[in-house]
Structures are given as C-alpha cells and as structure tokens.
C-alpha cells in the first residue's frame, strides 16, 4: 500500500466503554500525521452502503474535540452485520467502490471476535484494515476495550444490590453479559465479594451451590442481632447445567452472526434454588428459628433475579479503558501507515507498537480454571466442589507487561 492519505473509522458489534476513546485516538493520530480521518457510520452496514453516501463526517480538529472519550458507546454508531452473509455477490466490489469514492486507503475497525472475523474476510478481499480490539466479554487473546468498564459496572451493581437483599433476607441472582466466556461475571463477582459466581467454563452442580447457600446465608442471618443477611450469586448468561447445556430459554432469537441471543440464566438458577429450598426440611426450621416463618405466606426465603442488561455497557468508561482505547486507535493508524493490514493491536510497550494477526487475536479465550481454584481457596463458590490449588513459583524477569 502506498502513502495513506485518508482512513475510515468503524466501530462494530456491541457498544461498551472506551469506544469513543478509540475513535478520538485514531482521529488525533491521523491529524498529527496529515492523514484525513472519516467516520463510516453504523458499522459494517455503513461500510456496505458507503457507495450511496453523499458525504462523510471528517474528524478534523474541531469535530474531534467534540468526542468525549469518557462516554461509553460510540459516536460512529454500530450494527451487527456479517459481510460474508450479505447475499449480494458483488458486495466486496461494492465496498471497494465506496472506499474509492471517498479516497479512503485503509480502515481502523474496532470490535470483538465477530467484528474481527469480518476484518479477516475484508483483508482477504483486498481491503486494508487494522483491528482495534473491543469487547466487554474479554474473550479475545488481547486485552479489549470495554472489559474494565463493564467489570467495574457489574461490581458496583452487585455491591449495591446487597442492600435490598439484606433488608429482605433474600438470595439475589444477578445475570450479566459475556456469552460463552465468564470473564466479566468472574471479575465483577470477585470485585464485589459475591458469594457464588457461575460461569460457562464450569458446568453447575446445584448440590454444591445449595450447600454453599445453606452454610453461608443461614449462618449470616442467625448470627445477626437483627436477623438480617443476604447471599449473592453472579451468573454469566452462557452458564451451563449438569448436562452441559446452556440455560438460555431461546427467547432472544439469533443474531446476524448466527449466535443465540442468550436469556434466562438467572431465572433458571432462581427456580432451581427455590425448588431445593421447598423440599428441604432444614429450611422450615431455619425460618421458624429466625422468626420469619408464616405458614402459607412466608415459608422459604425469597430468591430474586436481577438482569441489569445493557446498563453494564452504558454510561461512563473507566480511565483504564479510555487510556487503552486511545492507544489502540492511534496505534491502528500508525500500523496502517506502516503498510500493515489484517492485524490486531495488542498495545504499546515503550517505543514498540505490538500487534498480532487478527486471525490469532479472535480465537476465543476462556477463564483460567487454575485461577478459579485459587479463588475457591477464599471460599467463593463456582458451582462445583472446590478443587485443590497447587501453585508453582517463579521469579519474574524483565519488564511487567500491563496488557497481557
């Protein structure tokens, strides 16, 4: 590729914290190097329809100053469109014509594994792209914009929900995003002192969960001078039961990438716990001993489900995501200028901009079960009998990498 004169900036997939920082970082880096930066709105839908646009918004100095890096979401807009599934046989020529129409030499594209798979596809069809990793799911091989913001939001919600749980002596089940990897549920739950964290990487043994509830929830209430206590479960939307099947009820349908829109995990967990409590004679005795039992009215503790949904990806971005987002966006511009394409930004390390092939970056990464065992030693339940943790020890050599 020759000298880069203009770039297009695309954000795609789900919204999250740090995306506006990617857009601003890419624009600022482009301006500093005399490169025109243009927003291609509405993700890959906008890219496909670019040939029909009359004009694009240029991110010059004045317009870029209007982008607030701290706000979640993206001024560039999103859509969930998989280019290869568009039936138009001339789709790649159509995209190329749109890019030529606006003299765009390369694309900075920020998104997760689905977005990255389209980056790979576009590069194979002659379109120059660099991927700035973004997904609140944190399941890429690199750190991804949005992860830290989402974990902080989940932790705050879970911590705050304890007040109503304790007031009513309830078991609270909080369902959070993350699809088939449990990183956000795991880290958000750990940060908020959740009692139980259910993630897709561990098939749920409800006997283990129930035993943990009885030993912790009942003890807290009986040891309280006002007989008050709560127990909090954080459950990832893609969690699996004893049979290995996902709990989702299928009510969400399927997205354009063929993924089932997951829904119903918290409801399933609530129902299972309720059923177990109703059949357990120890629960009636506990209700009587604690002074809560009212026959026919209040015979078992309440179990409530909460689904914060899109609240965990909205609002404000964390400072970490803003910093990484700017670095990822700006680095993507420099990589395009260097003639690189089909790569994903890993981060900057001193004078080095690090990257890996996008095909490698989008391979799904799951929660490390050794780390799960580590936290089981701290009495956190993960829906199984605690596994032994036997660490090895090594002295770290060299500079600590903050992103990997």
Structural summary, described in words:
The protein has 404 residues and is α/β, with parallel strands linked by helices. It is built from 13 helices and eleven strands. Helix 1 (19-32) links the parallel strand 1 and strand 2 (36-39). Helix 1 packs across helix 11 (319-337). The radius of gyration is 24 Å and the shape is elongated. The protein starts with 5 loop residues before the first strand and ends in a 28-residue tail after the last helix. The model has no long low-confidence stretch (mean pLDDT 93).
Write the layout of secondary structure elements.
Blueprint: E1 6-11, H1 19-32, E2 36-39, H2 43-48, E3 57-58, H3 61-64, H4 91-101, E4 106-111, H5 113-124, E5 129-133, H6 147-168, E6 171-176, H7 183-191, E7 196-198, H8 206-223, E8 231-236, H9 265-278, H10 281-289, E9 303-306, H11 319-337, E10 343-349, E11 352-357, H12 358-361, H13 369-376
Parallel strand pairs: 1-2, 1-4, 4-5, 5-10, 6-8, 6-9, 7-8
Antiparallel strand pairs: 2-3, 10-11
């Amino acid at each position: 590729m020759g000298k880069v004169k203009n770039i297009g900036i695309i954000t795609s997939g789900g919204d999250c914290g740090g995306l506006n920082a990617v857009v601003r970082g890419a624009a600022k880096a482009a301006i500093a190097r005399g490169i025109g930066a243009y927003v291609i709105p509405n993700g890959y839908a906008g890219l496909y329809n670019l040939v029909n646009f009359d004009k694009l918004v240029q991110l010059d100095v004045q317009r870029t100053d209007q982008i607030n890096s701290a706000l979640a979401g993206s001024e560039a807009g999103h859509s969930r469109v998989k280019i290869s599934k568009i039936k138009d046989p001339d789709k790649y020529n159509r995209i190329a014509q749109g890019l030529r129409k606006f003299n765009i030499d390369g694309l900075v594209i920020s998104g997760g594994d689905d977005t990255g798979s389209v980056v790979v596809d576009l590069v194979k069809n002659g379109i120059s792209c660099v991927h700035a990793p973004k997904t609140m799911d944190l399941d890429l091989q690199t750190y991804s914009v949005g992860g830290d913001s989402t974990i902080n939001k989940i932790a705050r919600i879970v911590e705050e929900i304890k007040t109503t749980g304790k007031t009513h002596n309830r078991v609270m089940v909080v369902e959070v995003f993350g699809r088939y990897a449990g990183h956000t549920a795991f880290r958000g739950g750990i940060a908020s002192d959740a009692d139980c964290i259910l993630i897709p990487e561990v098939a749920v043994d409800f006997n283990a969960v129930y035993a943990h509830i009885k030993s912790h929830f009942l003890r807290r209430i009986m040891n309280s001078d006002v007989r008050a206590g709560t127990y909090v479960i954080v459950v990832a939307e893609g969690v699996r039961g004893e049979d290995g099947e996902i709990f989702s009820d299928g009510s969400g349908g399927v997205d354009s990438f063929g993924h089932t829109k997951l829904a119903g995990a918290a409801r399933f967990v609530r129902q299972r716990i309720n059923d177990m409590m109703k059949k357990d004679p120890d629960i009636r005795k506990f209700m009587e001993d604690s002074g809560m039992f009212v026959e026919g009215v209040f015979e078992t503790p309440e179990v409530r489900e909460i689904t914060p949904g899109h609240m965990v990806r909205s609002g404000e971005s964390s400072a970490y995501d803003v910093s990484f987002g700017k670095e990822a966006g700006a680095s993507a511009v420099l990589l395009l200028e260097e003639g690189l394409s089909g790569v994903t930004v890993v981060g900057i390390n001193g004078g080095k901009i690090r990257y890996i092939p996008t095909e490698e970056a989008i391979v799904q990464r799951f929660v490390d079960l050794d780390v799960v065992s580590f936290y089981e030693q701290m009495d956190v339940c993960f829906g199984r009998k605690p596994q032994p943790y036997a660490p090895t020890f090594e002295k770290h050599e060299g500079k600590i990498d903050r992103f990997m």
